[in-house]
Amino acid sequence: MLWRKLLVPLTSLALALVLSVPAGVNAASASAAPATGAASAADFGAPGPYATTVEVGAVTTLYYPRDIAQSGRRHPVIVWGNGTFAFPVVYRDLLLHWASHGFVVAAANTPQSNLGISMRAGIDLLTRRNADPGSVFHDRVDLEHIGASGHSQGGAAAIVVGADPRVDTILPIQPGPLANINAVHGPALLLAGQRDSIVFPALVRAFYNAADHIPAIYGELRGADHFTVVGGAGPFAAPTTAWFRLHLMGDQEARTEFFGPSCGICTDTRTWSDVRRNARATQIPAATL
């Protein structure tokens, strides 16, 4: 793995997620969405170079580069879990942002994702599609590099799925408490919101404190509440993209965002209200030898 080389099921949460879906968008009618303009090498919050498209399935919604069949490379995978009573369309902007950077995102079509079953099903689906000569995904999916992410209950699910040997890294966003990080075997970036009154930052820090067996980083986004990520990628776009580009694509320009004595998120106090790195994370150098 690259790193070795280097429910809360609340009624108020459900209502807010439903009301936050952008007008005119629904999962059943999601269609191709172009990502225009290539990001500069270190501008991880800008759209990537790939135009994107969406395929809505019964169990999994796929967000991926539109011309993947003609791509000259294999694309890493991110599996996604939704918050309580939410569906992938709620997080459409973030998932399309990742797809524009070259990832295949397999989002679970379930509003109760905590067990991670549907997220694992996304990996299984892409494994079959990758092996199918008649699929646009044939031999274009990098199944050796898979990350797991999600929001709220889906963040907890990302921790659960992090125990799967196929998953290389996790990035839970404001994860609910129903998970055990002790079985996670890859590096973790745990994100909290400074003003989150549903999943308090202390709950996310508890996961970070327990993750002393893996490289783990805790990042608290200044001013963010529990719904900042809903309906738009917002301040979550850049750090999440950089994390996955580093761990799933080997992008060394992204490394300095998280590692070394002057890491980007460590010094950016306008964006981050609190950043912590455990001993295993601080041992990772800012550059490869």
General description of the model:
Pfam families: PETase (PF12740). Its main location: periplasm. Residues 60-258 form the PET hydrolase/cutinase-like domain. It is found in: Periplasm. It is an enzyme of class 3 (hydrolase). Helix 6 (201-210) links the parallel strand 7 (188-193) and strand 8. This protein has helices spanning 2-5, 11-19, 92-100, 117-131, 153-161, 201-210, 237-249, 264-267, 279-282; strands spanning 52-56, 60-65, 75-81, 104-108, 141-151, 169-173, 188-193, 216-221, 272-277. The protein is α/β, with parallel strands linked by helices and 289 residues long. The protein is 27% helix and 20% strand. A nine-stranded mixed sheet has the order 1-2-4-3-5-6-7-8-9, sandwiched between helices. The chain has one domain (2-20, 64-282): 3-Layer(aba) Sandwich (Rossmann fold). The two termini are 17 Å apart. The chain contains nine helices and nine strands.
Large-scale geometry: globular
What is the annotated CATH architecture? 3-Layer(aba) Sandwich
Cα-atom Rg, whole angstroms? 17 Å
- Structural class estimated from helices and strands: alpha/beta
